[in-house]
Design brief:
Number of helices: 3
Order of helices and strands: HHHEEE
Number of domains: 2
Largest sheet: 3 strands, antiparallel
Shape: globular
Helix content: 25-40%
Number of strands: 3
Length: about 100
């Protein structure tokens, strides 16, 4: 396992500034990214971002919001409070809180 200069795990992935084809589409289609698709450090970052689609507990969503890595927006629906985030002007629903 390789750590970068800030102590972050990089899994010996190259930091070439590239993203593998199709991974952004996974995010835009609200799909998790499979670890077998990871080829670069940026791919790994997208993998971690995709995990937001698999959060099932309000405490987890609130932690993501508190950390500020993925800016979440609060909204309200007929079911109550909901969280979503926006990428390229497109809203992505995360979770309802009833």
């Amino acid at each position: 396992m390789k750590l970068d200069e800030n102590g972050y795990i990089t899994h010996n992935l190259t930091d070439d500034g590239l993203v593998s084809k199709g991974l952004v589409d996974h995010i835009l289609n609200k799909q998790l990214i499979d670890k077998q698709q990871i080829q670069s450090l940026n791919d790994f970052k997208l993998l971690q971002i995709s995990w937001v689609f698999d959060l099932n507990f309000s405490a987890a969503i609130k932690r993501v919001e508190a950390l500020g890595f993925i800016p979440l927006t609060k909204g309200y629906s007929d079911r109550g409070l909901k969280f979503f985030f926006v990428v390229k002007g497109k809203s992505f629903f995360c979770m309802d809180f009833i």
